[in-house]
Amino acid sequence: MTLAIGVDNVRPGTFSTQPPHPSELEAAIEYVENVVMPLARRLPRDAVLAVEGELPREVKALRDIDDVEARFNSVVAVAYGGPITDAVLSDQRHASAVLILREFMHHLGFGRLLTR
After folding, report:
1. Which of 31, 45, 74, 75 is the most exposed place for a label (fewest CB within 10 A)?
2. Of all helices (H) and strands (E), which one includes residue 5?
3. What CA–CA distance (Å, rounded) separates 23 from 67?
4. DSSP per-residue letters across 46-86
């Protein structure tokens, strides 16, 4: 299944600030949720979330919902003015990838992530 969202099309389009502004994150969450939620009825119970394509290295290292949620919370903290403990946390493409993965895993019940 291929969807019309990605690290360069997350709200639609990319984030306009670096790090993303909280309002941009909220708009992106709403946009991605509108794409994700209709899939809930169509996915088999044993579906695995496999992601292909170019992803930031730090995103490829994430393996499960706990990893993704922790990284997402870090991105949100930076957006709200928290300290940037890792330069990648302020990167737009990184924030987009983490947000998309978080919405898929959170709303569709994926526990694990496979990246290729």
Report:
1. 45
2. none
3. 24
4. T--EEE-S---HHHHT--BHHHHHHHHHHHHHHHTT---SS
